[in-house]
Amino acid sequence: MNIIDLDVQGMTCGACVQRVTTALAPIDGVQDVAVDLRAGRVRVTAEANVAPSQLISALAARRYESEVVTNGAPSGQATDSPPPPAAPEGGCCCS
Questions:
Q1: What does the alpha-carbon distance between residue 66 and residue 78 come to, in Å, rounded to a whole number?
Q2: Is 88 helix (H, G, I), strand (E, B) or coil?
Q3: Please, are residues 87 and 95 in contact by the beta-carbon 8 Å criterion?
Q4: Which of 2, 24, 64, 80 could form an SS bridge with 59, CB 3.0 to 4.6 Å?
Q5: Which CATH code fits 2-69?
Q6: 85 CB-side CA count, 13 A
Q7: What angle do CA 86, 39, 1 make, to 5 degrees?
Q8: For the whole model, what pTM was predicted?
Q9: Of 34, 38, 41, 31, nearest in space to 8 by CA
C-alpha cells in the first residue's frame, strides 16, 4: 500500500469533505480517504497502481486545485484547472 498526501485548496465545509471523499474513493485501488479540513489536506491509502495524477485529476473534475505533499510541503505538482469558485459571503462555494 502507498500513502499519498495531497494539499487541497478550496475546502471550506463538511460538504466539501464529502465532495472530495466521493471524488477519490471510487478510484480503482483506493483503499481509504482521510480528509483534514482544517489543514486542507487529504491522505489517500492506495494500491501501488494508483498514481497521484489520478487523484489530482479526480479533484480537478470537482474544481479543487491540489498538489502532492512531499516531506510536509507541497511539491509544486498542481493541477492546470481553474481554481474553485470563491465561497459566497456567509456560505460555502458548494452549498
A1: 6
A2: coil
A3: no
A4: 64
A5: 3.30.70.100
A6: 9
A7: 115
A8: 0.78
A9: 41
What confidence tens digit (pLDDT) does each residue in 43-67 have?
Answer: 999 999 999 999 999 999 999 999 9
Domain ranges of the chain: 2-69
- DSSP class of residue 48? T
The three cell numbers of residue 76 are 509544486
pLDDT digits (tens, 9 = 90+) for 70-81: 876 555 544 444
Calculate mean pLDDT across residues 76-88: 47
The residue whose grid cell reads 500513502 is: 3
- Overall size of the chain counted in residues: 95
Looking at residue 25, its amino acid is A
HSE, CB side, 13 Å, CA atoms: give it for residue 77.
Answer: 16
**Helix boundaries (H) for 1-95:** 14-24, 52-61
Secondary structure class of 21 (helix, strand, coil): helix
